[in-house]
Write a structure and sequence with these properties.
Shape: flat
Number of helices: 4
CATH topology of the domain at 554-625: Wheat Germ Agglutinin (Isolectin 2), domain 1
CATH class of the domain at 554-625: Alpha Beta
Strand content: 25-35%
Structural class: mainly beta
Strand order of the largest sheet: 31-29-30-32
Number of strands: 32
Largest sheet: 4 strands, mixed
Distance between the termini: 131 Å
């Protein structure tokens, strides 16, 4: 077999040889193991054992040219490899003859032990999976039924712990546990059932049924099988009122510390310790020197007094800040400025300053409202169209005419003394067009000329307005297409022009009725020619083209025949003529009706008289020509 990663010599190629030993069409794991890969194409002996891997013409082939111990004739050993290149691996190494060589067989001395063998309860690994007697443990005690002294009881097996004198031999040694031990002399075996080992307790009373007798139970009325006592006070945690929450002591503070002490199972008391004289904080920012006294934190009131007897002195509880609030200094006079002089410790009521810095005005304060006023000379000339004021520099009244200019050049601006206000007259906006509505827009300060709406409900009409009169006109489109052969009109319902063909019929079937787009209708004469030589063609205005059979046109110049024009007769020639002999006339003895309304005994007789035939058969009248 070519080792992994190796390649054949130059010119060679790998050939896989699979061995289907049992001939089932598939390779089993053993057959795959015995399959080989050879190098082919060149004669090489890479391992120098004297056997090339692909020299098919000389000696046997080496099945592994990379191992000198593997070649034809080599000694076979049990290693899962075909050592002698006979296409068989480990032949001769199956001592128990179970079909598995010693290399694969977990026990080559026992034919019942091999990979995949049925597992039986015999203390062996029959199927070679590393486990013994799997599936044979009825009671689930990890001991196989075939070696378990009681395969139906998981508490009884070899090596189990033997419980003293319970009438059961758990470890199957024939003895029911060790001898009695009773160190407390209460008649109960200490190792087996005494619920108070080391303490005399003959009645084994256990009120809380926790497995610990009342004589030694640190919680006789509360189940506490582990006898936990975390604070080592002799009372179990299960009935320690300080631990169960039955008794809760107050929260410690700076001046008092509390300790919970259990006095008996289910009962406890809180013991307080006072921290008198210890510095503390009473939470009041307006006290100082806080310390513990009698279990409480007490402090002296903060001194916030200032040097003035008129102020109200206090401490602000939110911040501990001292407040020294002055008295209300108001004198009920709105013309004074009232304030507290902190330095002097008194109220000050100073007169209000109403001076406007104008030496020509009289300044004063209104004692009712406290408002200042500065009175100047009265310059009102009683003219609403003047602006009246006093000129300090001129020391005179000024009465200036008001400007009414609104900044709009199109308006006429002036002041109306009667109205006492400016008047702005807009211009005339008439544009002399009766088709517009003319108005003055005060916001935009311009004339607006809105066109008159002449639109009708027909979207296809041409809507317009006459400027001279303001009359609306709604005209339909011009539908003339310039074609004299159409009748042009406007369809209001369809909203389109309709061009209907003109009828040129003159009622005369002997004319062709035609139309010229430029000039209109015209008529040409109909030419009547049915293409038959012996007929005489003409036109009738009521019936159109007609044809009359003309026998003389068929005259063949022979006196022995009757020559007639009968183009519908199958015996007629290209001219439509039939030439009747006496014999033919006799054979064609059947009546015909001439165009003269006379019935002839046969076609020949009618032809002899030169009468064209109207139709075969008798005429409607009774006149018969023999």
């Amino acid at each position: 077999t070519i080792p992994e990663g190796a390649i054949c010599a130059e010119g060679g190629f790998a050939v896989e040889l699979g061995l289907d030993i049992d001939g089932d069409g598939a390779l089993s794991p053993v057959e795959i193991l015995k399959s080989k890969t050879f190098c082919s194409g060149t004669a090489q002996d890479a391992d120098g054992d004297g056997y090339p891997p692909n020299d098919f013409s000389s000696k046997p082939l080496d099945c592994d040219d990379h191992n000198p111990k593997i070649h034809p004739g080599a000694a076979e050993i049990s290693d899962g490899i075909d050592n002698d290149c006979d296409l068989l691996a480990d032949e001769g190494f199956d001592a128990d003859k179970d079909g598995f060589c010693s290399f694969l067989d977990p026990d080559d001395s026992d034919p019942l032990v091999y990979p995949g063998a049925p597992e039986v309860c015999d203390g062996k690994d029959n199927d070679g999976d590393g486990q013994k007697d799997e599936g044979f443990d009825s009671d689930g005690d990890s001991i196989a039924d075939c070696v378990d002294c009681d395969p139906q009881n998981p508490a009884i097996y070899q090596g189990a712990a033997d419980i003293t004198r319970n009438l059961v031999d758990e470890n199957c040694d024939g003895v029911d546990g060790p001898p009695l031990v009773d160190n407390d002399l209460d008649g109960v075996d200490d190792d087996f059932s005494d619920n108070c080992k080391g303490k005399y307790n003959p009645d084994q009373k256990d009120a809380d049924s926790d497995g610990v007798g009342d004589a030694c139970d640190n919680c006789p009325l509360s189940a506490n099988s582990g006898q936990a006592d975390s604070n080592a006070d002799g009372i179990g945690d299960a009935c320690d009122a300080c631990l169960t929450g039955a008794v809760t002591c107050p929260q410690d503070n700076a001046c008092v510390s509390y300790v919970c002490l259990a006095v008996e199972p289910g009962a406890a008391q809180c013991v307080a310790s006072l921290n008198n004289g210890l510095a503390c904080d009473d939470g009041d920012l307006c006290t100082t020197g806080d310390q513990c006294a009698g279990g409480s934190c007490l402090g002296a009131a903060k001194n916030c007094a200032d040097a003035f007897i008129l102020t109200a002195d206090s401490c602000l509880a939110e911040t501990g800040e001292c407040l020294n609030i002055p008295p209300d200094c108001g004198d009920q006079n709105p013309c004074t400025i009232d304030s507290w002089d902190k330095a002097a410790g008194k109220c000050v009521n100073a007169p209000k300053n109403c001076s406007d810095s104008d030496p020509y005005t009289v300044d004063s304060c209104n004692p009712e409202s406290g408002e200042c006023s500065s009175v100047r000379p009265d310059c009102d000339d009683n003219n609403p169209c003047t602006s009246d004021s006093f000129s300090t520099s001129l020391q005179a009244c000024l009465n200036e005419v008001l400007s009414c200019d609104d900044g709009i050049s199109l308006t006429t601006d002036y002041c109306d003394a009667a109205l006492g206000k400016c008047v702005h007259i807009p211009p005339s906006c008439d544009d002399l067009n009766a088709c517009t509505t003319d108005i003055w827009d005060e916001v935009a300060s311009l004339c607006l000329h809105t066109p008159k709406n002449c639109a009708d409900s027909d979207p296809f009409t041409l809507d317009s307005c006459l400027p001279a009169t303001g009359e609306c006109k709604n005209e339909v489109p011009n539908c003339d297409d310039g074609n004299a052969c159409t009748d042009d009109s406007w369809s209001t319902a369809l909203g389109v022009c309709v061009h209907a063909p003109v009828s040129c019929s003159d009622g005369n079937l002997c004319t062709n009725d035609l139309c010229s787009p430029s000039s209109g209708c015209y008529h040409t004469q109909v030419v009547c020619d049915d293409g038959i030589f012996c007929t005489s063609d003409y036109c009738d205005s009521a019936n159109g083209c007609l044809a009359i059979e003309a026998n003389p046109l068929c005259d063949d110049g022979l006196g022995t025949t009757v020559d007639i024009c009968s183009p519908d007769d199958s015996r007629s020639d290209l001219k439509g003529c039939v030439y009747w002999s006496d014999q033919m006339c006799t054979a064609e003895w059947s009546p015909v009706c001439g165009i003269n309304g006379v019935t002839y005994s046969n076609l020949c007789l009618a032809a002899l008289e030169g009468v064209p035939v109207d139709h075969a058969g008798e005429c409607a009248t009774d006149t018969v020509r023999p």
